[in-house]
């Protein structure tokens, strides 16, 4: 463990940060109303928070304010910097590159917004966006925001079933998809997967139209009356579109994420609070300036992509880079070339990417200039001190601050972090809470832990970026997040606070597995496996993995012993969830360790799968204590 600040510093926090923390503490209402001035409002809010974590739970920010998110990201920048680059799109093939100015991005967003209005999309309607990393992905999100439609961005790696589940739950009326997406040498059949998904929705589908973006120009089946060419439709429209004036608490988007139980949860983010949080955090955490070329490598279908590919940098008037491809394709170090070619100044990525880069020869990163870089960031999983230092030394050339940012889909933006120029980094620790963020660590009895210690990571007060609810299920929202530590929001993570007040994230304490930054609910995996009729039951758990952080392991109990085909389990997961969730390893076992009341003891499965066989604890409470020794033997045999 590294305890000294790195690089060495006497004072880990700036005066500015200290001042912000004090002001936020002294008068939160005044502080957050002042932060709202980052945005352009049609009606200024007179109140900041009307949130309450007790009773039915309410998350409410700037409720009397009115604004439009797309106007905030575009129109006000068109006024004074129309020719500045808003979006640089870099394709994965050399020569595929486009620089889109604020004026041009505004025009393209308006054309598409007009198309959506013509197709009957109204304020509050949901529009699903299912695109790879192309400019149209950003344009589609902003076009929805412009007319008050709620965007639901769906990951390109979801299976047809995964898409269908989210289309049905959200009730999307229009879908924007690609003909075919590129992923390194592979082609991903976006349109045909979407066709299948809509078919699976059957009578429950609300989808009236599908707009198809010609990403590769491939010939794809088009259903008459329903499917339309994106290019042909936008060509019919004018580059201007009046924005819908929204209430601050109207939803800007829904985003699905995995939890410990059941189906994916559609988190609902607000227009005003979310946008204030995107602006505040992007500026403070990354020390971002409008002159920065800001590259957040996340896919736009994750919250990181929403807040730091799209809304944060654009609301603050910067230039975003959208890169289509993989880190090391067609050659190792491709992303370093992308940084050099586009003069990227802020680079925000994941520990998985850094761990993969560390495995390459050091000459790969050392042969690139990387002199445009100013600030580095990571997100999504804990980063080891070794990886942090490698990132700092090799990519940042010992000159760029590294910010390890802890946050979640639910929080809308960064919560605990170092801040470039304002809060010194410490390798392996996430850092300090941002001003106004009331982090607490709680013990198993629900008591707050003071000073140094380890506990459940909770938030005692709302913050502007907090999701307001779960789509059409406020009760599930309340139960999921506000019952473990009553009166607090519980994150699902554990953390440790050190003597300097820095937080070290220890990982999920619930049944969520974090594979390369992808949040995967074990229940989703088990539901998919249950579709295989040769299976009696299964249990999915996470185990430590060198490259992915965690890997998914599934224990399967087949109906008939002997001729069970474990690859069928992979197929069931690929079909039910998506290829990205296919387990690393499947163990075929005769039974699972259970309590006498029949509850699967996952703690034991995690230890057995990780070959961590010390301290197995008291086994006498199991219905069949002998099963543990048998599982240990079977796992060793099957490895
Ligand atoms: C994990 C991504 C350690 C954590 C923004 C959290 C992290 C989950 C970090 C949220 C970090 C995120 N250090 N763990 N810096 N950042 N996590 O919703 O377990 O996709 O609960 O949001 O990722 O994942 P999500």
TrEMBL record:
> What range(s) does the Acetyl-coenzyme A synthetase N-terminal domain occupy?
17-73
AMP-binding enzyme C-terminal domain ranges (all copies): 524-599
GO terms of biological process kind: acetyl-CoA biosynthetic process from acetate
Please name the InterPro entries in this protein's record. Ac_CoA_lig, ACAS_N, AMP-bd_C, AMP-bd_C_sf, AMP-binding_CS, AMP-dep_synth/lig_dom, ANL_N_sf
Task: Return the EC number.
Answer: 6.2.1.1
User: Pfam families in the record, alphabetically?
Assistant: ACAS_N, AMP-binding, AMP-binding_C
* Matching PROSITE patterns: AMP_BINDING (PS00455)
User: What SUPFAM superfamilies has UniProt attached to this entry?
Assistant: Acetyl-CoA synthetase-like
Keyword entries, A-Z: Acetylation, ATP-binding, Ligase, Nucleotide-binding
Q: What class of enzyme is it?
A: ligase
List the Gene Ontology MF annotations in alphabetical order. Answer: acetate-CoA ligase activity; AMP binding; ATP binding
Which Gene3D superfamilies does the protein's record reference? 3.30.300.30, N-terminal domain of ligase-like
Query: Which residue numbers delimit the AMP-dependent synthetase/ligase domain?
Result: 75-461
> What residue intervals traverse the membrane?
none
**Entry-linked NCBIfam families:** Ac_CoA_lig_AcsA, PRK00174.1
Q: Which family does it belong to?
A: Belongs to the ATP-dependent AMP-binding enzyme family.
- What is the name attached to this protein's record? Acetate--CoA ligase
* Protein's organism: Acetobacter oryzoeni
């Amino acid at each position: 463990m590294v305890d000294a600040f790195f690089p060495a510093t006497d004072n880990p926090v700036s005066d500015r940060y200290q001042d912000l923390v004090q002001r936020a503490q002294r008068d939160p209402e005044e502080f957050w109303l002042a932060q709202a001035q980052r945005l352009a409002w049609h009606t200024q809010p007179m109140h900041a928070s009307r949130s309450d974590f007790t009773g039915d739970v309410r998350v409410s920010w700037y409720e009397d304010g009115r604004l439009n998110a797309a106007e905030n990201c575009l129109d006000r920048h068109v006024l004074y910097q129309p020719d500045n680059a808003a979006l640089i799109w870099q394709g994965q093939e050399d020569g595929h590159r486009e620089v889109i100015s604020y004026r041009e991005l505004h025009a393209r967003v308006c054309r598409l917004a007009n198309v959506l209005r013509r197709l009957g999309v109204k304020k509050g309607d949901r529009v699903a966006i299912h695109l790879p990393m192309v400019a149209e992905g950003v344009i589609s999100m902003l076009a929805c925001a412009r007319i008050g439609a709620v965007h639901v961005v769906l990951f390109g790696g979801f299976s047809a079933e995964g898409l269908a589940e989210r289309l049905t739950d959200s009730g999307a009326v229009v879908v924007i998809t690609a003909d075919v997406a590129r992923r390194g040498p592979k082609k991903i059949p976006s349109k045909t997967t979407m066709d299948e998904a809509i078919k699976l929705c059957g009578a429950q589908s609300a989808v009236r139209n599908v707009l198809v973006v010609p990403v590769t120009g491939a010939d794809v089946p088009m259903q008459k009356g329903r499917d339309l060419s994106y290019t042909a439709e936008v060509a019919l429209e004018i580059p201007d579109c009046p924005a819908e004036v929204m209430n601050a608490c109207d939803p800007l988007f829904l985003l699905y994420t995995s939890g410990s139980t059941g189906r994916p949860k559609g988190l609902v983010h607000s227009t005003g609070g979310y946008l204030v949080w995107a602006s505040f955090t992007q500026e403070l955490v990354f020390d971002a300036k409008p002159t920065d070329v800001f590259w957040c490598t996340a896919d736009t279908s994750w919250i990181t992509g929403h807040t730091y590919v799209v809304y944060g940098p654009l609301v603050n008037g910067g230039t975003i880079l959208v890169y289509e491809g993989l880190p090391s394709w067609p050659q190792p170090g491709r992303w370093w070339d992308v940084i050099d070619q586009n003069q990227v100044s802020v680079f925000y990525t994941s520990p998985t990417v850094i761990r993969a880069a560390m495995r390459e020869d050091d000459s790969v990163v050392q042969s690139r200039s990387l002199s445009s870089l100013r600030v580095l960031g990571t997100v999504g999983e804990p980063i080891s001190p070794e990886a942090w230092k490698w990132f700092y030394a090799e990519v940042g050339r010992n000159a760029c601050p590294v910010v390890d940012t802890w946050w979640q889909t639910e929080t809308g933006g960064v919560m605990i972090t170092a801040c470039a120029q304002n809060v010194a980094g410490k390798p392996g620790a996430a850092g300090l809470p941002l001003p106004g963020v009331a982090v607490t660590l709680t013990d198993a009895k629900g008591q707050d832990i003071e000073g140094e210690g380890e506990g459940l990571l909770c938030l005692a007060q709302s913050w502007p970026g907090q999701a307001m609810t779960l789509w059409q299920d406020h009760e599930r929202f309340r139960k999921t997040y506000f019952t473990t530590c009553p009166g607090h929001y519980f994150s699902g993570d554990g953390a440790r606070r050190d003597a300097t007040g820095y937080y070290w994230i220890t990982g999920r304490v619930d049944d969520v597995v974090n594979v390369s930054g992808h949040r995967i609910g074990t229940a989703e995996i088990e539901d998919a496996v249950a579709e295989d009729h040769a299976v009696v039951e299964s249990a999915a758990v996470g185990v430590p993995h060198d490259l992915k952080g965690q890997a998914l392991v599934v224990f399967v109990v087949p109906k008939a012993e002997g001729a069970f085909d474990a690859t069928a389990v992979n197929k069931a997961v690929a079909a039910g969830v998506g290829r990205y969730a296919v387990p690393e390893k499947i163990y075929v076992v005769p039974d699972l360790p259970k309590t006498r009341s029949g509850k699967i003891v996952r703690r034991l499965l995690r230890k057995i799968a990780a070959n961590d066989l010390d301290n197995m604890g008291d086994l006498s409470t199991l219905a069949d204590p002998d099963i543990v020794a048998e599982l240990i033997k079977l796992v060793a045999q099957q490895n």
